Amino acid sequence: MTEIWKPGKANIPDNKNNAIMFSTDHLHPLIVHFPIAIITTGFLFEVVSLFFRREKCLSKTGFYLMVLGSIAAIAGWSSGHLFTDEPTQGEILKVFLKHETGALVTMILIIAGTIFRIWLMVKKKEDSPLKWIAFMFYLLAFIAVTFTGYMGGTMVYNFMIGGQ
């Protein structure tokens, strides 16, 4: 029998009390979509910039989205780490551990790639072969964030909403 895991109870106001209450359980789902969207979009700008090399704005946009994606990844990882309950048993625990590891790997890769790309800019080596190292960081971060999002979706749809 598969254990069904449910996050902590949300503070839902009742009819007797008109006060608005807020639960931190909702922070992670609210925030986590930003790193997925930003890192994916930024990486796509980088890929397109390979085909349109004269359009420097594509690569610049990819860079700015990389910086923003780093901030979003930190926010997404932090909100998950600080404000969600961790399952303790059952099949969901295996999925959760993959999700948690993927989130950490995503955050490390996108931050490392951003720092490396900033270093390339400071040293004026953006057009050197070293740019491919930054591109590889971005590619790996894109793969990691896609995997992490998939694992998160698996938890929600298979264990929380659908409840296997």
Q: Can you walk me through this structure?
A:
This protein has one domain. The protein has 5 helices and no strands. It is elongated. Helix 2 packs antiparallel against helix 5 (about 130-160) and helix 3 (about 55-85) runs antiparallel to helix 4 (about 90-120). It has about 160 residues and is mainly α. It is about 70% helix and about 0% strand.
Characteristic terms for this protein:
about 160 residues; mainly alpha; elongated; disordered N terminus
Topology:
Elements: H1 27-31, H2 33-51, H3 56-83, H4 91-122, H5 131-161
What is the count of helical runs?
Answer: 5
Gyration radius, rounded: 19 Å
Number of domains: 1
* Weakly predicted, low-confidence segments: 1-6, 9-15
Summarize the structure.
This protein is mainly α and 164 residues long. Helix content is 70%, strand content 0%. Helix 2 packs antiparallel against helix 5 and helix 3 runs antiparallel to helix 4.
